[in-house]
Design a protein that fits this description.
Elements: H1 2-20, E1 26-39, E2 47-59, E3 64-68, E4 71-75, E5 82-91, H2 100-103, E6 111-122, E7 125-134, E8 142-153, E9 158-169, H3 171-178, H4 182-188, E10 198-210, E11 216-227, H5 236-239, E12 244-255
Antiparallel strand pairs: 1-2, 1-12, 2-3, 3-4, 4-5, 5-6, 6-7, 7-8, 8-9, 9-10, 10-11, 11-12
């Protein structure tokens, strides 16, 4: 019931944002997408192709709605600097992965994660904190991500973004994705392992944007993430794969 109420509140907030914000004079819309490459589970050394949709609506008063991949957020603060609003993230299930031992563990269902984000954007610098919670029965936990960085506008055609982040997760999240209980140990042959609440990763984000035509942009993204704490290779799940996780994508975006 608590998760259903949480989900309902954030869906309502997003609905209000989508109904109210269009009444504000819009500054810019964009829509696009591309292809990304990511690990087939968190901690894997095997990779898979994934679609990466992207869209946003930015308004003159600083409010916006943004979609990137399976993450949707809406800034509800009319400010040039401050940002605050609801965020939704879809986390794919862990099932049918390449590693046979991890694949023999119980399936982890897909997660619908809702939460809140806040921060500041000033003079091309940004700092944000996201806090999200599983609203179903996938990992039934929560995590928070602190990230910051800078976007360098080289000229009207080229922009380069650089950032860093770290994520802290609770016991439920950590045990779901990095732990091995007795039943999973028997199924997979992996040693049992208790993953406790801790920081789970640190990482870097790099991005480049090329405005190759009047309304068209080509974007390239690279994220390098290092698993730490109880999510490092002390976890049998990660030891089967890699502590270093990569995500890369190429997108084409149309502005109107």
């Amino acid at each position: 019931m608590k998760h259903q109420k949480t989900c309902g509140w954030f869906l309502a907030a997003l609905l209000v944002a989508l109904l109210v914000i269009p009444g504000v004079q819009a500054g810019q819309y964009s829509i696009g997408g591309g292809i990304g490459v990511k690990p087939d589970y968190e901690g894997s050394s095997d990779y898979e192709l994934v679609p990466v949709p992207a869209a946003d609506a930015k308004f003159d008063n600083g409010m916006y709605v943004k979609l990137f991949g399976l993450n949707l957020r809406a800034n509800l603060i009319p400010s040039k600097f401050w940002r605050l609003g609801p965020v939704y993230n879809y986390r794919a299930e862990r099932d049918d992965v390449e590693n046979n031992r991890v694949d023999n563990m119980a399936q982890v269902s897909d997660a619908n994660e809702f939460g809140i984000f806040g921060g500041i954007e000033w003079d091309n610098w940004y700092v944000f904190l996201d806090i999200l919670e599983d609203t179903g029965n996938a990992h039934e936990g929560w995590y928070g991500t602190l990230k910051g960085g800078y976007t360098w506008i080289i000229n009207p055609e080229w922009a380069l973004s650089m950032g860093a982040f770290t994520t802290y997760a609770d016991d439920d999240y950590m045990q779901t994705y990095f732990g091995v209980n007795g039943r999973d140990s028997a199924r997979s042959g992996l040693d049992t392992y208790d993953a406790d609440e801790s920081f789970k990763d640190i990482g870097l984000d790099l991005g480049v944007n090329w405005a190759f035509a009047q309304r068209w942009n080509l974007r390239g993204l690279l994220q390098v993430k290092q698993l730490v704490g109880d999510a490092d290779d002390g976890s049998p799940v990660v030891d089967e794969g890699s502590e270093t996780q990569l995500f890369t994508a190429v997108l084409v975006v149309f502005k109107f």
